[in-house]
Amino acid sequence: MRLVSIASGSSGNCIYVGSDTTHVLVDAGISNKRIEQGLNEIGLKGSELTGIVITHEHSDHTKGLGVLARKYGVPIYGTRETLEEISKQKYLGEYPRELFCAIRPDVDFFLGDLEVKPFSIDHDAANPVAYRIQHEHKSVAVATDMGHYNQYIIEHLQGLDAVLLESNHDVNMLQAGPYPYYLKRRILGDHGHLSNENAGRLLCCILHENLKKILLGHLSKENNYEELAYETVKLEISEGDNPFKASDFSIAVAKRDQMSEIITI
Predict the structure, then answer these.
(1) Stated pTM of the model
(2) Number of domains in the chain
(3) What InterPro entries does its record include (predicted)?
């Protein structure tokens, strides 16, 4: 099983998860050209995609959908409300709506030999989800665009082999930055984004000795930077109420304009 961030950030998100025979994208929020370049770097073509699972309808998660759908006829999975919103996005152009496959939170489904487990998150979107994806006894999760976390989310992130988790903003940078007040309130609210500190606190709840890789993703371009997210999360882990230190884990930041390493589990 492999996990690769092709792009992750406030300007565009696209994550690959796959096995030897099944190839899935979590979101397609960058250009089709960049998506195909990323796939090529891991030895795949767009025509080999099994499906695209969409977390929610915001453009930084859907931008490349139209071209992929027209070019390859790839099935697109999302909640009914998410798909309804995507169907209204004129910038995606024309593509076959029969590619849409409605899913529901907490109702698992299979794509090839991958078991996909969508679970609800709180974000200012129609009916957003994060995804846990399993292959045999291995599992990874992509969990971003969460205003907060709770016991339900913690339970869905237990026992992972790898995780890409949102570490969107530094609270002080956001509060002191140029964003208008309403936007600051939105980001900081329960339906906004997870801060660096809260990403670290959430990790403290799901760490275990077999967690092989942590990727911090969906960083804000204006209200965060890689070193700050990395060091803040490490500090929360090392000083948190858990038996681990940050040095016990492989932690990296997923970049907005570069692919991550290929994480193989």
Answers:
(1) 0.97
(2) 1
(3) Metallo-B-lactamas (IPR001279), RibonucZ/Hydroxyglut_hydro (IPR036866), WalJ/YycJ-like (IPR052533)
Residue indicated by tokens 């979590």 = 26
CA distances from 234 to 40, 66, 211 (A): 33, 38, 15
Which residue segment(s) compose the domain that 134 sits in?
Answer: 1-257
Please indicate, yes or no, if residue 264 is contained in any of the structural domains. no
CB 264 within 8 A of CB 1: yes
Q: What digits encode the pLDDT tens for the residues 140-159?
A: 999 999 999 999 999 999 99
DSSP 3-state of 150: coil
Question: 94 burial class (0-12, 13-18, 19+ CB within 10 angstroms)?
Answer: exposed
Contact of 72 with 52, CB cutoff 8 Å: no
The C-alpha atoms of residue 92 and residue 146 are separated, in whole angstroms, by 25
C-beta separation of 223 from 174 below 8 A: yes
**How far from 212 is each of 15, 183, 248, CA to CA, in Å?**
17, 35, 10
Q: Length of the chain in residues, anyone?
A: 265
- Domain of 85, CATH number, reads 3.60.15.10
- Copy the structure tokens of residue 232: 């803040």
- Kindly state whether residue 38 falls inside one of the protein's structural domains: yes
Q: From residue 43, how far is each of 20, 53, 72, 99 by CA, in Å?
A: 11, 20, 17, 25
| pLDDT tens sequence across 102-112 | 999 999 999 99
115-147 burial, b for 16+ CB within 10 Å, e for fewer? ebbbbbbbbbbbbbbbbbbbbeebbbbbbbbbb
**For 197-201, what is the mean pLDDT?**
98
DSSP per-residue string spanning 159-189: T-SEEEEE--B-HHHHHHSSS-HHHHHHHHS
Instruction: Evaluate whether residue 262 is within a structural domain.
Output: no
